[in-house]
Every structure is written in C-alpha cells, then in structure tokens.
Design brief:
There is one protein chain. By secondary structure, the protein is of the alpha/beta class. It folds into 2 domains: about 15-95 and about 175-255, HAD superfamily/HAD-like (Rossmann fold), CATH 3.40.50.1000; about 105-170, Trehalose-6-phosphate phosphatase related protein, domain 2 (Alpha-Beta Plaits, 2-Layer Sandwich), CATH 3.30.70.1020. The protein contains 7 helices and 12 strands. A hairpin with a 4-residue loop joins strand 3 and strand 4 (about 85). Helix 1 packs across helix 7, helix 3 packs antiparallel against helix 4 (about 140-150) and helix 5 packs across helix 6. The protein is globular, with a radius of gyration of 19 Å. The relative contact order is 0.20. Bound molecules: magnesium ion. Magnesium ion (MG) binds near residues 197 and 199. It catalyses: alpha,alpha-trehalose 6-phosphate + H2O = alpha,alpha-trehalose + phosphate. Keywords: Hydrolase, Magnesium, Metal-binding. Belongs to the trehalose phosphatase family.
Length: about 270
C-alpha cells in the first residue's frame, strides 16, 4: 500500500472525466437512499460537464434510474450496476441481463441469508442484488462466505464486495470495461481518461486508466492501483473546482472560435 500517493496535478487539458458516485462525489450514508447531492455540488458538476463538452460520465454500483434520481435535473452518460448497464452520450441504453428464471430463486436464497445475519438488508437493482450491512455488527467473512456458497452454482453471477455491502451482479462486467466502452465513442474518444473512485469495485477502472496513461485517483484510504489520492469527498470538490476554473478560462478563447456544447449540457 502507498498512502503517500500524491495529490493529482491541476489539469487544464481535454480529458475524459469518469466518476464513481458514493464515497467519491457524495459522502456515504447509513443507507444508500439517504445519500444526496447538494445543489452547489450539482452546479459544479454541471460546469465540468459543459467545460469538458460532455466528456463526462458517472460509473457506479447504482442503477441508471437511481443515478438519474440522485443527480436530477442533470443528465449524464452513465455506467450502472458496476458496468452491467450503460447509457451512452446519445441516451442509448445497453445492459447485461441475468438469465430468465434466475432472479426469483436468487432473491429467495438471499432473503434466507438476510435472516441468518440480522440487520442486513437486501436491495434489488433489477439486474443485480446488494446485501447491505452498514452499522450492523456481524462477521464480514462469514457473510461473504455464505453469499459465495450461494452463487457457486451460477457461473453467470459474480460477487462484488464493497464498503459494508456485498453485491451479486452479472459476471464478466466491470467498471473498467464500461470506461473502455465510453472511450471508444465521441466525445470521450481520443482524450486521456481520468477516473475517481473510493472502493474495491473501482480498481478495474484504475487499471484501465493506468494502461491508457490517464489519471487514476483514489478517494480516501486503502490499498489501490490508483496513482494519485484525494483524502475525501470535500477534497474532490475542492480539486474539481480549481480544474473547472482552468477549463472555463481556457474555453473563453475556444468559445470565440465557435465550440458548442453537446446534448447533455445544462445550467442550474
Ligand atoms: Mg464508491
């Protein structure tokens, strides 16, 4: 582990910006539905979206619908459920779905696991499940083993541990893959990527960004593949504000030359 990772440099070039949400753009809360994005933070994200000419996407464990609700009235390109679903810059949605007939028995088996670990809570995300245990005293190892045992007969499923959550999602998808897909498309294509995240599920995206010579930024403590670190959500916005100011200053000249914003740009 390298806790001495540097703070990322203040950039002013045309990057593709990718962000995890919970623990990165918004402070973690006891329950995911308690997480909010204050208007001031939304305004800064809207400014970044405009200043980057829409080369900005959120890649989260949340569903697309959930991400839209959290960030309303903004509208971003999105990677949801750890990359299992994606909405591109034009609003086209693609998703890896679970095999028909798997969801009902899986739900029942996970509900049985919840009963064995009092206080845990099952969230259904359509194409994935999340077992939350924030604030619950239990053996994390025992819970993960129980879920591992449960999904062993299903090669279509993968287990994704996170901060006080164990998720069961479709196998063969990752945040890194979602990020790579975005980079094949305009306006992301050809720009070095930047990704910020705080949790284990973000490591695949850090790996992808490192391979492409971009900026990988870990938020908070912990072992990571990322090359830079910001200590928390407040520091993320402090850094972003300085970067947005630089991009806007650079764009002042560009707008004179007729650069226009893309379909998702919006002022708050
Ligand atoms: Mg996170």
């Amino acid at each position: 582990m390298d806790d001495a990772l540097p703070v990322p440099p203040l950039i002013s070039g045309q990057y593709s910006f990718f962000f995890d949400v919970d623990g990165t753009l918004a402070e973690l809360q006891p329950r995911p539905e308690m997480v909010t994005l204050p208007a001031g933070r939304k305004r800064l994200l809207a400014r970044l979206q405009a200043a980057s000419h829409d080369a900005m996407a959120l890649i989260s464990g949340r569903s697309l619908e959930d991400l839209d609700t959290l960030t309303a009235p903004l509208r971003f390109a999105l990677g949801g459920v750890h990359g299992a679903e994606r909405r591109d810059i034009n609003g086209l949605i693609s998703a890896v779905t679970l095999p028909a007939g798997l969801t009902d028995p899986l739900r029942q088996q996970l509900q049985a696991v919840c009963l064995r670990f009092p206080g845990t809570r099952l969230e259904e995300k359509g194409i994935a499940f999340a077992l939350h245990y924030r604030g619950v005293t239990l053996s994390e190892t025992a819970l993960i083993q129980a879920v591992e045992q449960l999904i062993r007969p299903y090669p279509e499923l993968a287990l994704q541990p996170g901060k006080c959550v164990v998720e069961i999602r479709p196998a063969g998808v990752s945040k890194g893959m979602a990020l790579a897909r975005f980079l094949e498309e305009a306006p992301f294509r050809g720009r070095p990527p930047l990704f910020m995240g705080d949790d284990m599920t973000d490591e695949s995206a850090f790996d992808e960004v490192n391979l492409r010579g971009g900026l990988s930024i870990k938020v908070g403590e912990g072992e990571t593949l990322a090359r830079y670190r910001l200590s928390g959500v407040t520091e993320v916005y402090h850094w972003l504000e300085q970067v947005v100011n630089r991009l806007e200053a650079a764009a002042t000249g560009a707008s004179v030359r007729g650069v226009s914003h893309g379909p998702f740009s919006r002022c708050l």
